[in-house]
Write a structure and sequence with these properties.
heterodimer; A: alpha/beta; Cytidine Deaminase, domain 2; 9 helices; 13% strand; B: alpha+beta; three-stranded antiparallel sheet; 13 helices; 43% helix; 12% strand; elongated; Adenosine deaminase, tRNA-specific (chain A); hydrolase (chain A); CMP_dCMP_dom (chain A); tRNA-specific adenosine-34 deaminase activity (chain A); tRNA-specific adenosine deaminase activity (chain A)
């Protein structure tokens, strides 16, 4: 009961490893830069569009005080569902962006009827941050086709940083391809904006005073004016400003 | 510090320090015997401790002061090779207390004595003048792994440090019989839940969450991977809805927990607001009683002000309804709770347990691709920010009857 070494579990491990080797030949985890003159490079502008949509969602989450991780599910060039972290509002540590997006699909009657049997076999997922161990297995259960994400997550990441769970043989699951590094810097900047707020807590622990993201950006620019990385940040901020205008327009329309 | 420093200047302070370590009056060990503990200890130990590592295979002079019984002075003087020379010299040396000089009575070999360094001479003087007995004793090379061993070593052999390994699960043999009985009770509850799930057309897997401090059942649930049960009644209300592919046992139980917690908090907030309102009304009534004598115009103004106030209050209420403002109140997720489940959770569910900060998990039968022991061991993963205790194969046969397949829950 105490010791976890059984003969049966050892056998299982050997079987699992052999299956993993086969799946590793078929599927891949690659960065965007590794694709030269392939499908993905040709459609890069399309992929970036969807990723920007995910980052928009991230900004909404940031305003609500959540960890700004957001995702978008795309079926044949159309966005079906959007999701962002809701761990604080729902008081549930498992309510990550990916699961929220799944719920959107299965709560909608039309979408539910369409994806009841085939699940998400022909859908792509665009996330700002690498899915955690839990979500990367949940994506296998949903039988997703490809996953695009921005930056790696060294603590929880299930697609390359801690484990490579998109290859692992899981019953009822299907392995999938991963493409990393899509709009990486923007995703990192989003997280930085959030964690900088956290560090400057107000003296009263229950009510946190939060700095405006814009002020932080100005400070960053001030610091990096003279350094070589200033141009890079300038480019990113310009991109972000365009995204932000979109968000504001949407909010005003609503 | 060099040895001469210790002996000549700081000896008293050093001695006091050793005294402090030895709070327990220990029986003086036989000074001539050699402790052969090194080989035995090698089995237990994995890490090497810096202090002791330096003196690999050290020979230690445990010296006993005849005048101070009970207090044992332990001084590390030199390595084994140097110690042999020193012992030979010590046998051939006498000390004059009146003159304060050392006389060499050896086999006419003054050269040996003259070759000694000042440091060694000092040592010899010190030992001879205080009537110490010199002997070899072995010292633990590795740190103690159990508290009892540490107690033995620290007070009897050599001062050492005990570092508890926090995250390892206690052995089942160390668990009390009463708690084992309670564990059986809760596991049978989980099995009941699994039977309900099986009746409704799902997999036969059930789980129970328990608060070990109050022995209360916090939440129960079963596997809900089929959307609509055989009776065609939708299982999950919208507030705790999750898509049916992912609605494994543990995911449903975390959702139940969170919805209950949010409801509780909302109730508490409403009650608080009622209290505040009542107080405000009382205050207002008093004020109105005072203001009765005022003119009509002023009263009209008061009414306007009151309207404005009410509007403000409504705005404030809306702001306070945002759950974020009171997320920190009450129980945080599932901290300190124990979970009982009939089947080993899959990787997704075991990661969900990490996210919800469970303290202990007990599961029945293991599965091929489970996350707590069979395929991965997520509860011991170093990069994750939470670790918990796991017991497996608890009431295995009963659990296997319910759902026997390589799939994880």
């Amino acid at each position: 009961m105490d010791h976890l070494n059984n003969s049966s579990s050892c056998c299982n491990k050997i079987i699992n490893e052999s299956i993993e080797k086969e799946t590793r030949k078929q599927y891949y985890i690659k960065t965007v830069e590794e694709f030269n003159e392939t499908e993905i490079q040709e459609e890069l502008s399309n992929h970036k569009k969807f990723m920007e949509a995910a980052i928009e969602e991230g900004y909404k989450a940031l305003k609500e005080g959540e960890v700004p991780v957001a995702c978008v599910i795309v079926y044949k060039g159309e966005i079906i569902a959007r999701g962002s972290n809701k761990t604080n509002i729902k008081k549930n540590g498992t309510r990550h962006a990916e699961l929220e997006a799944f719920d959107q699909i299965f709560l909608n009657k039309e979408l539910n009827d369409r994806f009841k049997d085939s699940l998400l076999e022909e859908c792509d997922l665009y996330v700002t941050v690498e899915p955690c161990l839990m979500c990367s297995v949940a994506l296998q259960f949903c039988k997703i086709k490809r996953v695009f994400f921005g930056c790696h997550n060294d603590k929880f990441g299930g697609n390359g940083s801690v484990y490579e769970l998109n290859f692992s043989p899981i019953s009822n699951g299907r392995p999938y391809n991963c493409i990393t590094g899509l709009l990486k810097n923007q995703a990192i900047l989003l997280l930085q904006l959030f964690y900088n707020q956290e560090n400057k807590k107000a003296p009263i622990p229950n009510k946190r005073k939060r700095l405006d993201p814009e002020e932080l950006k100005k400070e960053m620019l001030k610091i990096t004016e003279n350094s070589s990385s200033s141009q890079l940040i300038l480019n990113i901020t310009q991109d972000l400003n365009s995204v932000k205008e979109k968000v504001l327009k949407d909010l005003n329309n609503k | 510090k060099t040895l001469s420093h210790i002996i000549n200047d700081d000896f008293t302070s050093e001695f006091n320090h050793l005294k402090k370590i030895k709070k327990k009056p220990s029986p003086p060990p036989p000074s001539t015997t050699i402790v052969d503990g090194d080989k035995e200890k090698d089995k237990h130990k994995e890490e090497e401790e810096e202090e002791v590592e330096k003196d690999n295979k050290v020979s230690k002079n445990s010296t006993k002061q005849s005048s101070q019984t009970g207090n044992l002075l332990q001084l590390l003087i030199c390595g084994e090779s140097r110690f042999k020379n020193l012992k030979i010299i010590l046998e051939n040396v006498e000390y004059d207390k009146e003159l304060g000089e050392i006389k060499f009575i050896g086999n006419d070999d003054d050269s040996e004595y003259q070759s000694l360094s000042n440091e060694q001479k000092g040592i010899i003087k010190f030992i001879k003048s205080n009537d110490f007995i010199v002997s070899i004793e072995k010292v633990p090379k590795y740190p103690p792994l159990l508290y009892e061993i540490w107690e033995d070593w620290n007070y009897n052999i050599w001062p050492c440090v005990f570092r508890a390994h926090i995250f390892s699960t206690p052995l089942i043999s160390n668990v009390k019989d009463e708690t084992l009985l309670e564990m059986r009770k809760y596991m049978s509850l989980a099995i009941e839940q699994a039977e309900i799930g099986k009746k409704r057309g799902h997999k036969g897997i059930g789980a129970v969450l328990i608060d070990p401090n109050t022995n209360k059942i916090v939440a129960t649930s079963y596997d809900q991977t089929n959307r609509i049960s055989v009776d065609e009644t939708p299982e999950i209300s919208e507030t705790q809805y999750i898509s049916p592919i992912i609605s494994h046992c543990i995911m449903t139980i975390t959702n139940k927990l969170s919805t209950e917690q949010v409801d509780d908090i909302k109730k508490q907030m409403k009650e608080q607001k009622k209290f505040e309102k009542e107080k405000q009304f009382e205050n207002r009534n008093e004020n109105e009683n005072k203001n009765e004598n005022k003119n009509e115009n002023e009263i009209c103004n008061d009414n306007d002000e009151e309207k404005e106030k009410e509007e403000k209050e409504e705005k404030e209420e809306k702001e306070e309804c945002n759950i974020l403002s009171f997320v920190n109140l009450g129980q945080y997720l599932a901290t300190n709770f124990h979970l009982f489940i009939t089947k080993e959770p899959c990787i997704m569910c075991s990661m969900a347990l990490v996210h919800s900060r469970v303290k202990r998990v007990v599961y029945g039968s293991s599965s091929r691709d489970g996350g707590l022991g069979s395929y991965l061991k997520i509860h011991t993963e170093k990069s994750l920010n939470h670790r918990f205790e796991v017991y497996k194969d608890f009431m295995e046969d009963e659990c296997k009857k319910l759902f026997d397949s390589p799939e994880a829950s």
